[in-house]
Automatic annotation (TrEMBL):
Protein name according to UniProt: Copper-translocating P-type ATPase
Residue numbers of the full-length protein present here: 442 to 729 of 786
Recorded family membership: Belongs to the cation transport ATPase (P-type) (TC 3.A.3) family. Type IB subfamily.
Coiled coil (UniProt feature): none
Cellular compartments annotated: Cell membrane
């Protein structure tokens, strides 16, 4: 293939919202046999909504939500956004925060209105039978429950739900039909991840993965001889996108993800992966 035909192909793709960095990306894509997909913001819309607040240990639900919203106001995470918006809708009072911290892939901590609050997953708050039990029915529906602790004691759960993009099932069906092996990779809890994967017919799930582990999973698959495309949207996906044979960023995601990827799907529509693959095959046929 001439550079001209490659340019014509990538130009056509660009008009359909698929940005391909260079010809080498198309060449690499042809041999891809495995597609690793981040859950939040890639398979799902990445715009979770507040579903439920269940306080334990003497707090009221409203008080827990007000404390949580104050802390999450300083976080950029989509979960934080859902909590802040949820509290605003209920016109809860805004509270003063000190010592805010956000350990990546775990959650947020700080002092709110004099109380030491931790909000996040079990890696941050620890596992507690009562909170796990409270979270179970929500997780079984694919919703995300995060744990709260106040002054080191379990204080309840906050549940958010993030709908699957309407384009996702069709995209996965086409990719599976082409023989690609699909793997879900997520920082979210195992039970939530399994439920979403089941809905989508994905059998291979890696859950509770810390950001630096995401790249390790990709490297592990490549070491086994697989050719791996990775689709993701977040800051936490950037190293994995860079490590993959082909990195695919969602245009609805973060800039750093797009900078680390060879392909960007402007609208975050995974059907773009099917099209990009078709383009790669057409171009490579011409070259050979
Ligand atoms: P992902 O976007 O793949 O779910 P992250 O690495 O961003 O993964 O987060 C992993 C987990 O850490 C989340 O599922 C959540 O439980 C927790 N977490 C991260 N950030 C926050 C936050 N701001 N508030 C509460 N929990 C959080
Ligand atoms: Mg994500």
């Amino acid at each position: 293939a001439t550079p001209m035909s490659i340019m014509a192909g990538t130009g056509r793709a660009a008009r359909e919202g698929i940005l391909v960095r260079d010809a080498a990306v198309l060449e690499a894509f042809e041999g891809v046999d495995t597609l690793v997909l981040d859950k939040t913001g890639t398979l799902t819309e990445g715009k979770p909504k507040l579903i439920a607040v269940k306080a334990t240990g003497g707090l009221s639900d409203d008080r827990l939500l007000a404390l949580a919203a104050a802390l999450e106001a300083s976080s950029e995470h989509p979960i934080a956004d859902a909590i802040v918006r949820g509290a605003k809708e209920q016109s809860l009072p805004s509270l003063k925060v000190e010592d805010f911290q956000s350990p990546t892939g775990k959650g947020v901590t700080g002092k709110v209105d004099g109380a030491a609050l931790a909000l996040g997953n079990s890696a941050l708050v620890g596992e507690n039978a009562e909170l796990t039990e409270l979270a179970r029915p929500f997780r079984e529906q694919g919703q995300t429950a995060i744990y709260a602790a106040v002054d080191g004691k379990p204080a309840g759960i906050i549940v958010v739900a993030d709908p699957i993009k309407t384009s996702t099932p069709e995209a996965l069906k086409a990719l599976r039909a082409e023989g690609l092996r699909l793997v879900m990779l997520t920082g979210d809890n195992e039970a939530t991840a399994r439920a979403v994967a089941k809905t989508l017919g994905i059998e291979d799930v890696e859950a509770g993965v810390l950001p630096d582990r995401k790249a390790e999973v990709i490297e592990g698959l490549i070491a086994k001889g697989r050719k791996v495309a990775m689709a993701g949207d977040g800051v936490n996906d950037a190293p994995a996108l860079a490590a993959a044979t082909v990195g695919i960023a969602m245009g609805n995601g973060t800039d750093i993800a797009m900078e680390s990827a060879g392909i960007t799907l402007i609208k975050g529509d995974l059907r773009g992966i099917v099209k990009a693959r078709g383009l790669s095959q057409a171009v490579m046929r011409n070259i050979k």
